[in-house]
Model the fold of this input.
Amino acid sequence: MTIMDGKLLKNKILNNIKNKIEKDNLDIKLAIILVGDNEASKIYVNNKEKSCNYVGIKCDKYLLDSSTSEEEVISLIDRLNNDDEVTGIILQSPVPSHIDFDKCAGTIRYYKDVDGFTRDNIYNLYMNKDGLVPCTVKGIIRLLDEYKVEIEGKHVVIVGRGNIVGKPLIHAMMNRNATVTVCHSKTKNLDEICRTADILVSAVGKPNLITKEMIKEGAVVIDVGISRVDNKVVGDSSFDEIKDKCTFITPVPGGVGPMTVAMIMENLLLAKEMQDNG
Ligand code: NAP
Done:
């Protein structure tokens, strides 16, 4: 069994990006909009800022009061869309309930949409064309590639059909010629389906959902879930219980999470290239 070390790979990727930015003297700026004071979001925003600082990308944070209106958020995005110094824009999720996240994030120009959530980028993923791919999905694929796990022809079971991970991952895996099955809260016989997976990806957010009985001997398990239990961050799977049945497994924390941040930095480089090439 090999533990797929997302933290190590993140550091390697960040160092490559840092070198490229220095060598090519690139001027890149990320704008992050955070509405309200969700504590977890603050941590995520700070992590993104830290990575930006490390690789030499400027990072402007717009910390808006929770009473900010939808119109004000859209108007800020509009200003950032038209600012040539801004390479990428992130609207941090979740936003307060009076704001429609999809409507606001949807106004980010596709070539500044480093989260990969806009229609154009989703369409490109759907059509298997180049574009900015959602970072967690891109991070999962990169992790598998780094550890030379073949995807083509494999049965990939994705548990969770959320808009940020599960749904875009269906397309990313199909684009790599996997055979994909998607499960969700209404799926019957989840255990049985999971047992047929060569690569099992769980993106739910329920601790201990994935148990030993659900793992085929020799499977690869990618745990995307993040939950807090007794102040500890845990994934969807019972890591200690299942690890010996797996050939590769991601830990939580330290697996997919760090990859998501690394892929934001890669998407910023890609966005810069798209903008420089018109
Ligand atoms: P989401 O939109 O709430 O989706 C959760 C999915 O889980 C839904 O499709 C839901 O099914 C399914 N589900 C719920 N209970 C289930 C059950 N008992 N059996 C099977 N499926 C079940 O969440 P998300 O945004 O995709 O995020 C999923 C998890 O990944 C969360 O823990 C989140 O924190 C984590 N995450 C991690 C990263 C990272 O960088 N590591 C990035 C993004 C998200 P229905 O559709 O039927 O409701």
Residues 130 and 274 are 10 Å apart (CA to CA).
